[in-house]
């Protein structure tokens, strides 16, 4: 198979570093270009990132000598790649502009950023859950006036643990969800040496996170009508998002009520058998088992279980009835793998499999 040539926009940041490691020896994709802000332009990837390498695995040798380009050189970069991953750290209006510029240059964009998540004809997809939303791409291309250029995004990392769990139960019509997420510091692009203030501390605020956590699931559960996603009206979601002193992994405590309350045995069966196209197609980054339930009272634990299925699986536990809601449970996802870079790569794998990403 001829590999598609990939550009990484924002390749020097935390998510960009994760993308670099995930794309090393990938069977479908190879990194052709790494682009970043002007501060890094002209340096090799090694020189630009070495002292800021945040992962506990070595920097792949294949990228060390790649010379970083300016992300604003849209035409030049587009001439060298088949599509780009976008993980830039810029104001939202600038991200929207740069992503549309690449799409209009006939270079598809698979984005980790939030800037286009509310754009009605931009699919925001968790591949196992709402891959049918990729159908929006044809309408989006008509709006942009492109033949192959488009934008697809992945949702916020904070929702990736509880949205899969609820998605498996949508037939029972959840009406109310209360979620409190306990989020790792890597979600802010930091490691402990960057942020000593977080040690022995909990911060009960993450800017913009609660709004995203309450709104984005409704787009994922929405339907396509007149070439756009119409958000679901239910369930009503209320969240609190809290930063805790762990390196990786977002834990969520979830409370849920249903219009048609299922039994506990039914819920466990639905979770055990829930899967999507990535599993059917055996995509390279697809977890073999999407949802894993732990019977132990003290699981899932962030340090023990965040790496399940190479960080692409969701861990669940402590399902029990509640005095106010119907049920409560705990779930966990790896925020920089399933929640960020890994989710984007899995989306790209599915987009390629369905013919949206092709060689130029």
List the helices and strands and how they pair.
Elements: E1 4-9, H1 14-23, E2 29-36, H2 45-49, E3 69-70, H3 74-78, E4 83-86, H4 92-104, E5 109-111, H5 127-130, H6 136-144, E6 151-153, H7 162-167, E7 174-183, H8 209-220, E8 223-225, E9 228-230, E10 236-243, E11 250-258, H9 264-273, H10 277-281, E12 291-294, H11 302-305, E13 314-321, E14 327-333, H12 337-353
Textual characterization of the structure:
The strands form three sheets. A six-stranded parallel sheet has the order 3-2-1-4-5-6, sandwiched between helices. The protein has a six-stranded mixed sheet with strand order 10-7-11-14-13-12. Helix 1 (14-23) crosses helix 12. It is built from twelve helices and 14 strands. By secondary structure, it is an alpha/beta fold. Strand 8 and strand 9 form a beta hairpin. Its EC number is 1.2.1.11.
What value does the average pLDDT take? 97
Instruction: Estimate the helix proportion, in percent.
Output: 25-40%
**Count of DSSP H/I helices:** 12
Name the helix and strand elements from N-terminus to C-terminus, one letter apiece. EHEHEHEHEHHEHEHEEEEHHEHEEH
CATH topology of the largest domain: Dihydrodipicolinate Reductase, domain 2
The total count of strands amounts to: 14
Name given to the CATH architecture of the largest domain: 2-Layer Sandwich
- Domain module tally: 2
- Calculate the terminal CA-CA distance, rounded to whole Å: 15 Å
Spatial extent as radius of gyration? 20 Å
Structural class: alpha/beta
Q: Numbering strands along the chain, what is their spatial order in the largest sheet?
A: 3-2-1-4-5-6
Major pleated sheet: 6 strands, parallel
CATH class identity of the largest domain: Alpha Beta
Could you say which overall geometry the principal axes of the C-alpha atoms support? globular
Enzyme class: oxidoreductase
EC number: 1.2.1.11
InterPro entries: ASADH-related, Asp_semi-ald_DH_pep-lack, Semialdehyde_DH_NAD-bd, Semialdhyde_DH_dimer_dom
GO molecular function, one term: aspartate-semialdehyde dehydrogenase activity
């Amino acid at each position: 198979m001829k590999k598609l040539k990939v550009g990484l926009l924002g390749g020097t940041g935390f998510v960009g570093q994760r993308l670099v490691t995930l794309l090393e020896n990938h069977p479908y994709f190879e990194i052709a270009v790494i682009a970043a802000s002007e501060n890094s332009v002209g340096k090799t990837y090694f020189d630009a990132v070495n002292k800021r390498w945040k992962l506990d695995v070595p920097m792949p040798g294949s990228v060390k000598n790649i010379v970083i380009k300016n992300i604003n050189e849209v035409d030049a970069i587009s001439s060298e790649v088949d599509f780009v991953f976008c993980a830039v750290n810029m104001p939202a209006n600038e991200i929207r502009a740069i992503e549309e510029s690449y799409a209009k240059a006939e270079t598809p964009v698979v984005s980790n950023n939030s800037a286009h998540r509310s754009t009605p004809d931009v699919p925001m997809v968790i591949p196992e859950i709402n891959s049918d939303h990729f159908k929006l791409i044809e309408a989006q291309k008509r709006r942009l006036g492109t033949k192959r250029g488009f934008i697809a995004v992945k949702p916020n990392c904070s929702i990736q643990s509880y949205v899969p769990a609820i998605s498996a139960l949508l037939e029972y019509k959840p009406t109310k969800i209360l979620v409190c997420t306990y989020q790792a510091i890597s979600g802010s692009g930091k490691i402990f040496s960057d942020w000593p203030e977080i040690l022995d501390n909990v911060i009960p605020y993450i800017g913009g996170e609660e709004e995203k956590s309450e709104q984005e699931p409704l787009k994922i559960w929405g339907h396509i009508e007149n070439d756009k996603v119409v958000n679901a009206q239910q369930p009503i979601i209320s969240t609190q998002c809290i930063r805790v002193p762990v390196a990786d992994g977002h834990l969520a405590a979830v409370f849920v009520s249903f219009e048609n309350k299922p039994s506990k045995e039914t819920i466990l069966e639905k979770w055990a058998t829930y899967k999507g196209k990535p599993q059917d197609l055996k995509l390279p980054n697809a977890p073999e088992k999407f949802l894993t339930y732990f019977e132990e009272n003290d699981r899932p634990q962030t340090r023990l279980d965040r790496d399940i299925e190479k960080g692409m699986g969701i861990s669940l536990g402590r399902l029990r009835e509640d005095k106010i809601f119907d049920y409560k449970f705990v779930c966990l996802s790896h925020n920089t793998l399933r929640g960020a870079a890994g989710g984007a790569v899995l989306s790209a794998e599915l987009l390629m499999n369905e013919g949206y990403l092709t060689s130029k």
